[in-house]
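Lecture notes, part 5. Sequence design as translation. It can be helpful to think of inverse folding as translation between two languages: the language of shapes and the language of residues. The source text, in structure tokens, appears below.
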């Protein structure tokens, strides 16, 4: 099996898992705003094993903007540091920009013991007296923040009206503060507050949710235990308060659908902050902006008026969402998976296409003595990813890593090759079942440069995926290798073919298809796809054309027979394992 080079031709395959079952399986995972396989972590967190974990304050970006105070008047150098401290201890709740002679206070207008609902008021440090909150623009997400601040961890009851008629005594005051939250804040002090007047006799309040009942059939069950009306799930708005109602959605109602099956509000589209983990919400934004400018005149004439109104309203606190975004922008991101421009024309041949120089700049070959049977994928530093069945752990000196090898016979003599220092085979690799068919090779840093293998050549690291939702069934990806066709002459040139990711392959391979495997093949049965040698890469490109090593060529049955797709090691499921060996910062594209 190890040296078996594979060709697959698939006429059809069955992928019968309905979106309903998909959603059900997703919901059992109990994803929340802290699940980084679905959303990006806040700048004061990092992504570890699918969860957003608090950073230590010193790990925040060092860029100081302004210092801030907690409700207990403790001063932090910046917002990120305060939030990372609050992450582990809730007493460090944000109050205001420093200095802090006074603190932010939220209470009910009529305060009583154990009160859960009613009009609320805030005392903002910048204002001498407390203020009521305007009813306009007050939505469930603001009410959720207020309830959480008042100690109701499930947030607001999203089936209840969150505004109330003013008592007679208060009706003469038209002043109020309008509130705009993102929905994941822990205090209204972090939301943007503007002075406004409101003639209406209603003001913002809360009906906080505190219940442990079972949800009804027409309700969605939030991870925090709250029940919300079903029609409020998958609408882009965080009704649950923990975001769990927006994270398992094959369709989105009146909102933007991220490929990872999450819904985000339409206002997050083209707002210069990436919200979909695949970046779709910030793609093709030039086109969208062009649309805007080409709007008819009467559509535009509303704008100046809106602007004028906005200016009248005076902000009474700093925009902490802006601060959050700034902190995020200071966090370095890893560059990987970006190819140099390709110029050469491609030549199509039967059974795959010949790769051109720089087309797969992460592809390497693993030389085992004099034999060249396996491919590998460069992932950065001195590290190459391959299949466990390609290597043996105790004999690193047998292997050499070959770079820039397009043609196995007519290659340049000065081709780069590196001796191997360490071989790390997965501890639970099972050669009988091909479970955990993954291994890492570390080469000797012969140039003694931090770039290691990337020194003085065109090698590019493929990005390592961190979430199994970055690419989905039906996505078209590329497999490459020096695959040999059975019964035909040896193929010496690096080839590639397009394949489609498939749903759960249990229907084809029964119990041999395991959790951390992925199937990929072609719908039309063309013979040129699903070709590659063991250990080589199945690479998927995101919307910005960044390459991720999605799979490692592992095994397949009845290769070349319709209906039997190739099976790959699903790399996203091994992000932690790889991180542990090569170091988190080498492969963490975000949230390092
Ligand atoms: C702050 O961030 C900016 C933009 O990334 C950068 O140019 C600048 O060097 C940073 N300053 C410090 C002190 O880190
Ligand atoms: C906040 O306001 C409530 C009600 O007005 C009051 O009882 C409480 O002492 C205030 N807390 C602080 C820290 O000022
Ligand atoms: C979609 O959202 C609207 C409100 O925005 C709601 O009235 C409608 O019932 C929702 N549709 C579904 C299918 O949930
Ligand atoms: C695939 O589907 C079967 C049932 O159809 C299920 O038992 C199994 O857990 C699924 N496997 C994966 C990896 O989702």
């Amino acid at each position: 099996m190890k040296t078996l080079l594979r060709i697959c031709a698939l006429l059809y395959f069955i992928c019968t898992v309905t979106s309903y079952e998909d959603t059900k399986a997703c919901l059992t995972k109990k994803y929340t705003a802290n699940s980084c396989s679905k959303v990006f972590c806040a700048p004061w967190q990092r992504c570890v094993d699918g969860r957003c974990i608090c950073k230590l304050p010193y790990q925040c970006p060092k860029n100081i903007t302004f210092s801030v105070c907690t409700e207990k008047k403790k001063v932090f150098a910046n917002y990120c540091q305060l939030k990372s401290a609050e992450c582990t201890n809730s007493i460090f709740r944000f109050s205001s920009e420093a200095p802090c002679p006074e603190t932010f206070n939220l209470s009910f207008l009529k305060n009583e013991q154990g009160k859960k609902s009613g009009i609320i008021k805030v005392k903002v440090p910048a204002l001498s007296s407390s203020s009521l909150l305007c009813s306009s623009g007050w939505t469930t997400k603001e009410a959720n923040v207020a309830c959480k601040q008042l100690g109701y961890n499930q947030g607001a009851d999203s089936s209840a009206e969150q505004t109330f008629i003013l008592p007679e005594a208060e009706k003469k005051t038209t002043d109020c503060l309008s509130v705009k939250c993102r929905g994941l804040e822990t205090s209204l002090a972090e939301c943007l507050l503007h002075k406004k007047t409101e003639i209406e006799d209603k003001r913002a309040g809360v009906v906080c949710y505190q219940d442990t009942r079972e949800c009804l059939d027409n309700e969605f069950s939030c991870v925090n235990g709250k029940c919300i009306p079903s029609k409020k799930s998958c609408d882009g708005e965080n009704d649950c308060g923990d975001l769990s109602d927006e994270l398992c959605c094959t369709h989105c109602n009146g909102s933007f659908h991220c490929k990872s099956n999450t819904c985000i509000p339409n206002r997050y589209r083209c707002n210069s902050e990436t919200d979909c983990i695949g970046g779709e919400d910030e793609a093709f934004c030039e086109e969208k902006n062009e649309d805007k400018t080409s709007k008819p005149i009467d559509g535009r004439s509303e704008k100046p008026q809106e602007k004028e109104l906005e200016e009248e309203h005076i902000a009474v606190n700093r925009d902490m969402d802006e601060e959050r975004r700034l902190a995020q922008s200071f966090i370095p991101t890893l560059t990987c998976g970006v190819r140099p421009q390709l110029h050469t024309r491609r030549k199509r041949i039967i059974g795959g296409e010949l790769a051109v120089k720089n087309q797969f700049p992460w592809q390497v070959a693993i030389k085992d003595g004099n034999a060249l049977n396996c491919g590998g994928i460069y992932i950065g530093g001195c590290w190459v990813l391959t299949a466990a069945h390609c290597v043996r752990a105790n004999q690193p000196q047998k292997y050499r890593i070959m770079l820039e090898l397009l043609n196995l016979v007519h290659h340049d003599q000065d081709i780069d090759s590196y001796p191997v220092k360490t071989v790390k085979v997965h501890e639970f690799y099972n050669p009988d079942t091909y479970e955990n068919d993954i291994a890492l090779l570390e080469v000797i840093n012969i140039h003694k440069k931090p770039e290691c293998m990337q020194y003085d050549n065109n090698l590019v690291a493929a990005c390592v995926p961190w979430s199994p939702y970055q690419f989905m069934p039906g996505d078209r990806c590329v497999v490459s290798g020096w695959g040999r066709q059975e019964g035909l002459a040896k193929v010496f040139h690096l080839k590639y073919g397009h394949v489609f990711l498939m749903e759960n392959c249990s229907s084809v391979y029964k119990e041999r298809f395991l959790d951390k495997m992925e199937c990929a093949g072609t719908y039309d049965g063309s013979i040129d796809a699903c070709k590659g040698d063991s250990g080589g890469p199945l690479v998927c490109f995101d919307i910005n054309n960044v390459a991720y090593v999605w799979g490692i060529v592992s095994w397949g049955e009845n290769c070349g027979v319709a209906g039997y797709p190739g099976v790959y090691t699903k790399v996203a499921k091994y992000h932690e394992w790889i991180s542990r060996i090569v170091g988190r910062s080498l492969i963490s594209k975000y949230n390092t």
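The translated text above is only one of many valid answers, since several sequences can fold into similar shapes. Residues 1-18, 291-308, 527-532 have pLDDT under 50 and may be disordered.
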